[in-house]
């Protein structure tokens, strides 16, 4: 019998087939070779069942039916990809071994595990665990397949994460929604992230600006001029500062101390996903989701970078030869000159700044592969350029500086000067053509005063500590204290990574990675979720809290469920999930605690006073022109089990918020309801009366528009489109409405 390989997506399956079974026959839903049958999952084929699958009474949201805590979670097939699930079931009957080739991470492990559990597949399992999709890596991965049992703890962690999110989301969202009669979304990760934004907004609103003054002395010694900042308590008295300036201006001065110290600046660490998202946001204003999607395309489609969903900035000893191959592959490209200047001797297994196996768990840092990039879109090229330059910098020596610190006294007043003299550019030559942008995007600390005091120069600097000095001018600078800055997606990702703690130290940042909010793979989706449910708005790059988002946090805290908004608590949950994946914590104990917490949430909300409807209404405070009133909830009113909110079948409930967009009249005979857009689909306003009509937004490789849904309802079909069929193949055709009772769609192809 043959071995069945289950990849996560069609492209990945075809890549595997090309590497190990190049003569495999293409059967549309799978590829079959002499030894292997390769098929794919098309994402999540299996989902956790909605509450009404346990009991019909849950079709209606009622706080008296809460908490909903299943003894055993039911699994149901995703109706949009059911045909592919049947394909896997049939193929498995012909095979005596399975290979889990889904993404090498917690979510990929979960996708395979759900299929295995639902189909009751009992064959032995091997695990393909690779970090890029080049043919060489795939072949090496199959030569060293791991036993599936080695990943049992990771499966437990993935299952615990999924079920915990379901329990908190379903119970929290239903409890707050039914109590306050407005659709409110609550989640294990999204709610504490919202609380971070809320707390920052409150700090900004409470901030009172203070005017203060700085005094800058301008000094001359022979041909040398330099500037120094007055040393003393912050000055808030304008006339007093002006008098001080007059006191020292045109007066002789003397150098009290002059220190020279040589320093080195080493290259920044290799990228993990969160760091890449932060820098792409700072430099190109990419959203976290855009960076993740673009990186995924560079990995899956172009195969020019390694697995992007990593939380490590390091590599292992096995990666060092790969790094040298990738360096060689960059010869003859736009990076040719930088490759020529690289020192290969700097990248070796004893360089702990690069190679640190103890800090690599599932995947190493993001690296370019040895495949030459071609056909990249402009955005893909930008992201690839960030990754390649960071990679190349590891092959360059540190930048070297001489730091001159001068203390100058004039009329018994002290001025401090710091001059940073460049000796060797080192790795910074990689960024010489974009120095200003680089400096802007890599500053981790906002120490404005220190920045004012330090001056970086390229030419030699020196003074005679015994020589005469003149203070030829003194400039008074008027400044205002600044409020905390609004989060942008880059700074919010940083806060999520450290569970809200302001951490600048890189070692502490590494230590916090296990207890951040969410994972590198899910943080972008969490931010997008907050946008879609109408809790935050984007005003330029700034993230601004809406009135609805503000009220939700205040209601949760007012109910006495502070833990639900606590980044530290959620960070500890994430740490515990990581411990489960390593086999050092119990998944049963974790789930026991989650169930207790879900019950506590319901008990607290049940006795809470109902909020006024107007508490959710109002305009988003403008940082720029507001995009919309905050009472407007966007498409993500409800959602699936990933973000643990209300069930898909209740998606149209968003209309209770009073601001959904009417799309069309429900076509189900005798219904008379209206179709509204939800997060995942277009559902009927008569869902409470039992109407099950829904058209899923993502269908056959398309993200359906309002106009296309209207065409389906009114004409029964769309215009001709480029589609992706259920078996993963591309085709030209029309999407048709097959069932007017349920909204089931099909295709007509030529």
Automatic annotation (TrEMBL):
The keyword Protease does not apply. InterPro entries: Topo_IA, Topo_IA_2, Topo_IA_AS, Topo_IA_cen, Topo_IA_cen_sub1, Topo_IA_cen_sub2, Topo_IA_cen_sub3, Topo_IA_core_domain. Its EC number is 5.6.2.1. It catalyses: ATP-independent breakage of single-stranded DNA, followed by passage and rejoining. Residues 151-602 form the Topo IA-type catalytic domain. CDD domains: TOP1Ac (cd00186), TOPRIM_TopoIA_TopoIII (cd03362). Residues 438-447 have a biased composition (Basic and acidic residues). Keywords: DNA-binding, Isomerase, Magnesium, Metal-binding, Topoisomerase. Signal peptide: none annotated. Residues 2-134 form the Toprim domain. Residues 448-457 have a biased composition (Acidic residues). Residues 621-652 have a biased composition (Low complexity). Residues 438-458, 613-652 are annotated as: Disordered. It holds the Pfam family Topoisom_bac. Belongs to the type IA topoisomerase family. This is DNA topoisomerase. It comes from Paenibacillus phytorum. The gene is topB.
């Amino acid at each position: 019998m043959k071995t069945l390989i289950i990849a996560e997506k069609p492209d990945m399956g075809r890549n595997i087939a090309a590497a190990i079974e190049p003569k495999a026959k293409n059967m549309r839903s799978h590829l079959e070779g002499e030894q292997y049958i390769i098929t794919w999952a098309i994402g999540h084929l299996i989902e956790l069942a909605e509450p009404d699958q346990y009991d019909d009474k849950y079709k209606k949201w009622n706080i008296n039916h809460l908490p909903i805590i299943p003894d055993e979670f039911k699994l149901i097939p995703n109706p949009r990809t059911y045909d592919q699930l049947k394909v896997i079931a049939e193929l498995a009957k012909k095979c005596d071994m399975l290979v889990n080739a889904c993404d090498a991470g917690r979510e990929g492990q979960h996708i395979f595990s759900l299929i295995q559990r639902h189909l009751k597949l009992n064959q032995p399992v091997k695990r393909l665990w690779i970090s890029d999709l080049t043919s060489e890596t795939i072949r090496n991965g199959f030569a060293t397949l791991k036993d599936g049992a080695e990943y049992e703890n990771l499966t437990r962690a993935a299952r615990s994460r999924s079920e915990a999110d379901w329990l908190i989301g379903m119970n929290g969202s239903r409890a707050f929604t039914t109590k306050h009669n407005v659709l409110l979304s609550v989640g294990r990760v999204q709610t504490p992230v919202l609380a971070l934004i809320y707390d920052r907004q409150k700090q900004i609103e409470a901030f009172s600006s203070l005017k203060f003054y700085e005094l800058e002395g301008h000094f001359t010694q022979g041909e040398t001029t330099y500037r120094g900042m007055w040393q003393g308590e912050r000055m808030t008295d304008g006339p007093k500062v002006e008098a001080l300036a007059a006191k020292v201006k045109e007066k002789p001065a003397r150098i009290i101390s002059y220190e020279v110290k040589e320093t080195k600046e080493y290259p920044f660490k290799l990228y993990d996903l969160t760091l890449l998202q932060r820098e792409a946001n700072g430099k190109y204003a990419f959203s976290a989701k855009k960076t993740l999607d673009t990186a995924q395309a560079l990995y899956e489609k172009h195969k020019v970078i390694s697995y992007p969903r990593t939380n490590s900035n390091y590599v292992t000893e096995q990666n060092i030869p790969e790094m040298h191959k990738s360096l060689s592959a960059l010869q003859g490209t736009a990076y040719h000159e930088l490759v020529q200047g690289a020192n290969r001797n700097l990248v070796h297994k004893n360089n702990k700044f690069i190679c640190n196996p103890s800090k690599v768990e599932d995947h190493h840092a993001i690296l370019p592969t040895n495949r030459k990039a071609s056909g990249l879109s402009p955005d893909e090229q930008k992201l690839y350029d960030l990754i390649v330059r960071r990679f190349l910098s590891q092959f360059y020596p540190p930048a070297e500086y001489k730091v001159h610190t001068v203390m100058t006294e004039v009329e018994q007043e002290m001025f401090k000067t710091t001059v940073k003299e460049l000796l060797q550019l080192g790795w910074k030559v990689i960024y010489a053509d974009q120095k200003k942008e680089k400096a802007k995007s890599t500053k981790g600390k906002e120490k404005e005063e220190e920045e004012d005091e330090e001056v970086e120069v390229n030419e030699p600097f020196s003074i005679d500590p015994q020589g005469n000095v003149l203070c030829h001018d003194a400039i008074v600078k008027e400044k205002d204290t600044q409020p905390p800055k609004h989060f942008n997606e880059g700074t919010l990702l940083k806060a999520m990574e450290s569970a809200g703690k302001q951490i600048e130290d890189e070692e502490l940042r590494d230590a916090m990675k296990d207890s951040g909010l969410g994972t590198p793979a899910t943080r972008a989706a969490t931010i997008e979720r907050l946008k879609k449910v109408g809790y935050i708005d984007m005003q330029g790059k700034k993230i601004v809290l809406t009135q609805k988002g503000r009220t939700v946090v205040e209601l949760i805290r007012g109910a006495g469920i502070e833990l639900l908004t606590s980044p530290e608590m959620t960070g500890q949950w994430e740490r515990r999930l990581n411990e489960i994946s390593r086999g050092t914590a119990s998944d049963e104990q974790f789930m026991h605690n989650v169930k207790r917490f879900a019950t506590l949430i319901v008990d607290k909300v049940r006795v809470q006073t109902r909020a006024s409807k107007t508490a959710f209404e109002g305009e988003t405070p403008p940082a720029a022109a507001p995009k919309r009133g905050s009472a407007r909830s966007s498409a993500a009113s409800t959602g699936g089990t990933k973000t643990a909110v209300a069930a898909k079948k209740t998606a149209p409930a968003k209309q209770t918020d009073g601001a959904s967009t009417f799309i069309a009249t429900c076509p189900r005979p005798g219904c008379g309801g209206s179709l509204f857009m939800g997060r995942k689909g277009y559902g009927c306003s008569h869902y409470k009366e039992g109407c099950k009509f829904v058209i899923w937004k993502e269908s056959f490789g398309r993200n359906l528009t309002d106009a296309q849904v209207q065409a389906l309802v009114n004409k029964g079909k769309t215009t001709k489109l480029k589609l992706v069929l259920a078996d993963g193949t591309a085709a030209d055709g029309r999407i048709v409405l097959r069932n007017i009772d349920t909204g089931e769609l099909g295709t007509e192809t030529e």
